[in-house]
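Translate sequence into structure tokens.
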Amino acid sequence: MAVQDYFSYLLNPLELLRTKKVLQVNPTVVSQRAEPAETKLTVYDYNTGRIDIKALKKVEDCFPYIDPQTVSWINVDGLRKDDVESICKHFGVHYLITEDILSLGQRPKMDEIDGLLFCLLNMLYFNDKDSAVEIEQISIVLGKNFVISFQEDATRDVFNPLRERLKVGNTKVRQNGADFLFYALIDMIVDNYYVVMEKLGEKIEGLEEDIVRSPNTRSLAKINMLRKEMIILKRSVAPVRELVNGILRSESELIEEKTEKYFKDVYDHILQANELAENYRDMMMNLHDLYLSNVNLKMNEVMKVMAVVTCLLAPATVIGGIFGMNFESIPLLHNKWGFFISVGLMLFIPLTMIRMFRKRGWF
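Result follows.
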């Protein structure tokens, strides 16, 4: 790979944008989100005996589900400012929480305001085509007998297994209250972190094999790309530990005592995810060191070969220089066997040197 190709690969505008996105940490900068054409609302209203699934056409259609006798999951796909503010105002969500829902690049966190529990965290996806970790911010509000989830992308999420379980009457999520649904949503997001980390692990293992086999400048570029993805992963996963711990310490009346053990299970999962992310981070550092070691080893091999060749050619250079001097009287200069003797010496001395080098194990 040519040097100019390497720099053009590193200076790809998309990579520069990726770096800027990864390293942007200023929470005071207001990010602009392109509003979708419409907001999609889906309601799962259920109890132990029945479930009613509705796709609502208007925001106002979800208003009757505040403090119902059944458990209601209101899923909002596509965040339009007016619609989100209208929903939050009706369900008594504090203005600061509404602001967090509409903001971009927020750190995962939880709050308890005005009798409602609020969680903000990231859903992670792995783009196999670009080998990149993609983030979707999700906000979840727990109230009395209702849960509201706000998603940015209406085309994907990780909740399909939960939707299927809701359709079965004897599942735990149907037998318990809104706090168990709240737990199930967070648990789905955390469990999907392992799927993303598994994909990253496969990329790291493949890169390790490439570096051991034949390290090159493209390997270094791949190391830098994967390190950026690890930064995104770490920044999304690490704060969730505090989030779940905050729920366990909240003493909110919305969380029943029998549900706390499930949040402790989520806490254990996020601890393991953090440890795995740290392990992958250490592996990336080791890969960088391995790359440098292999490059230095390859350079040493080249230098050793060049040094051996130089040593083997030195006797021929010396003999040729001696017999090429402009003196009238040089031994064997006018001897008919002088040429063959000098050539023989030029061959004999390097062969003797090769034998000595091999005997000492220099190559």
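Note: DSSP finds ten helices and seven strands in the chain.
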